[in-house]
Amino acid sequence: MIGTFSHSLSIVTTTNTDDAERHSNGTQFLIFMRHLCRTGQVKNFDEALDLFQRMARMKPVPSVKDFTLLLGVIMRLRHYTTAISLVKHMYSALGIEPDTITLNIVINCLCRLKLISFGFSVLGTMFKLGLEPTVMTLTNLINGLCVQGNVAQAVVLADHMEKIGYPLDVYTYGVLVNGLCKTGDTLVAVRWLRKMEERNWKPNVVVYSSVMDGLCKDGLVYEALNLFCEMVGKGVLPNLVTYTCLIQGLCNFGRWKEVGSLLDDMMKMGMMPDVQTLNILVDSFCKEGKVMQAKSVIGFMIIMGEEPDVFTYNSLIHVYCLQNQMNEAMRVFNVMVNGGCLPDIVVFTSLIHGWCKNKNINKAMYLLEEMGKMGYVPDVVTWTTLISGFCQAGQPLAAKDLFFNMHKHGQVPNIQTCAVMLDGLCKGNLLSEAVSLVEAMEKSNLDLNIVIYTILLDGICSAGKLNAAWELFSSLPAKGLQINVYTYTIMIKGLCKQGRLDKAEDLLMNMEENDCLPNNCTYNVFVQGLLTKKEIARSIKYLEIMRDKGFSVDAATTKMIINYLSTNKGDTEIQEFFFPKG
Question: Measured between alpha carbons, how far is 145 from 147 in angstroms, rounded to an integer?
């Protein structure tokens, strides 16, 4: 049975499955099938499969063109694997030789399944069968390479196509331009756009919009607006996607006046912004802390008959959490839930992070329970946020329990989670626990970075265990790690704290030799160490170095200098440095 087509056959209103039975005799059935396929009325996979099976039982078997017409429908229904299997069945069971169009469908399906190497194998089969590939054959392969992220090879293939006599068509150019824009190669995409125009192909609004979107993402909004004017000047009308790309680009730079002008232009053309466009405005206002403006856009959204979605609410909740307005954040959360919009894991994580910043662990844990009730499994970001919250609230042992229980909830700590946990243990004076954690991480073959060891080094230095700290610091190159300015600064601070100024100075000198330039913080830390030991001459020497390098003293160094001057009024050396005569 073909199935129930009454909902989709608007043209043939009296046709039903019984009609199909009557038409299934030879030519009439094939005419009926072609009509369904060409008018887009086969919208259900089971119906398409039933048509194929009926064709396969016909005597004589229909031509390859009829089968290919139906296979194209199955491909458009996104049943790629089935389409490939049916082509194999045509060849092996029905004895139907595939033609170029049939194999084009196979290549397209393989490319959409990201099996690009098999797509090229089918191209080889075409040559063996004596079939001539078309521009569409090679365009499908170019599209496959772009989908796979191998845009450079797609460009090489496009160049090769032209050299061997396959002129690119408008679709091929569109695929290439879109692929280049998605991988951030916008300027190369612009060159292909110009090449397209040189070949007298007229880019459509999709191609122009792809390039404008890429330019905006690269921060080249001026160039995107120029291209927009060029497009309109050539008679290509912008669509909602075009305006949305430009609005996003302008919002990223806070160019609100121009955003308003574009919105006016849109609506004059009878094109109303949709939820996605308005969400860009809401999110951009929220990121700038302009909550009232964001709420005004949401009000406009509702007046237009558009319902705020989870992204809309999350933007507002996130900004309230950042501003420490947790009661407002929870009010928006309740409005969201009561309005029938289910929060996602991002919303919950934002709220949990907000309550953790407030050191209100009970509220954070309540939201974790609510997540579970709604069927959400907290991800590694949510767990990391909770662990950080417990550490900030001075409960590192409770954080540790969460850390080691993550696996029971199907989550594995990532390097960020480990860093947060380690920092909490170090700052909670649980150094032995911190060392044990790093040892466990090393045994688990986790790829530890310099950040992890820098956190541990800071903890060891803060505990006054300078020998252990130096041993760890010295072992880092052997672990294949590049010591950075932060790690050096922590070690210098630890040495200064123990009064080992000469060694700290040697380390400071070694930094430049190791291609790691000291920064403002490094010099301030060392000067503070010198001032603590009243090494005024050396302090002035490094203050002069700082001045020459364009660095300035920070608040802690300034306070130490003022304290020294107030208790050592007879010391003219440092006074003359800061207040030279004449």
Answer: 6
Handedness of CA 555, 560, 564, 567 (dihedral sign): positive
Instruction: Confirm whether 315 is domain-assigned.
Output: yes
In-domain check, residue 292: yes
The Cα–Cα gap between 409 and 384 comes to 13
Quick: pLDDT tens for 41-76: 988 899 999 999 999 998 889 999 999 999 999 999
pTM given for the model: 0.71
What is the spatial distance between Cα 394 and Cα 389, in angstroms, rounded to a whole number? 9
How far is residue 582's CA from residue 498's CA, in Å, rounded to a whole number? 40
Which residue bears the tokens 């609230």?
A: 393
Interatomic CA distance for residues 68 and 44, integer angstroms = 17
Q: Which amino acid is at 528?
A: Q
* Domain presence at residue 327: yes
Does residue 98 have a cis peptide bond before it, meaning omega lies within 30 degrees of 0?
Answer: no
Identify the domain containing residue 288 by its residue range. 276-338
Q: Which two tokens stand for residue 527?
A: 């000067």
Question: Cβ atoms within 10 A of the Cβ of 217, count?
Answer: 18
Into how many domains does the chain fold? Answer: 1
Give per-residue pLDDT as tens, 295-341: 999 999 999 888 999 999 999 999 999 999 999 999 999 999 998 99
Instruction: Confirm if 112 and 82 have CB atoms less than 8 A apart.
Output: no
309 occurs within a structural domain: yes
User: For residue 98, what is the DSSP state?
Assistant: P
Q: Which two tokens stand for residue 23?
A: 């038409």
Strand (E) or helix (H) holding 487: helix 485-497
Task: 560-564: list long-range contacts, CB under 8 Å, 24+ apart.
Answer: 560/528, 560/531, 560/532, 561/531, 564/531, 564/534, 564/536
Q: Sign of torsion, CA 432 434 436 442? A: negative
Contacts (Cβ under 8 Å, ≥6 apart) of 219: 252, 253
Q: CA–CA distance from 263 to each of 258, 353, 393, 483 (Å)? A: 9, 35, 46, 51
Q: How far is CA 182 from CA 90, 119, 177, 209, 215, in A?
A: 37, 22, 9, 12, 11
pLDDT tens-digit map of 413-455: 999 999 999 999 999 999 999 999 999 888 887 788 999 999 9
Q: Which candidate, 365, 370, 360, 297, places its Cα nearest to that of 326? A: 360
269-277, long-range: CB < 8 A, 24+ apart? 269/237, 269/238, 271/239, 271/240, 271/243, 272/304, 273/240, 273/243, 273/244, 273/304, 274/240, 274/306, 275/301, 275/306, 275/307, 275/308, 275/309, 275/312, 276/244, 277/240, 277/243, 277/244, 277/247
**Three-state SS for 204?**
coil
Per-residue DSSP letter, 477: G
Q: What is the 3-state secondary structure (H, E, C) of 509-524?
A: HHHHHCCCCCCHHHHH
CA-closest candidate to residue 431, choices 395, 455, 402:
455
| Locus of tokens 């501003």 | 323
Nearest Cα neighbor of 144 from 156, 134, 154 is 154
One-letter amino acid identity for 577? F
Q: 3-class DSSP state for residue 423?
A: helix
Tokens 């408008």 sit at which residue? 170
What are the residues whose beta carbons fall under 8 Å from the beta carbon of 9, sequence distance 6 or more? 15, 36, 41
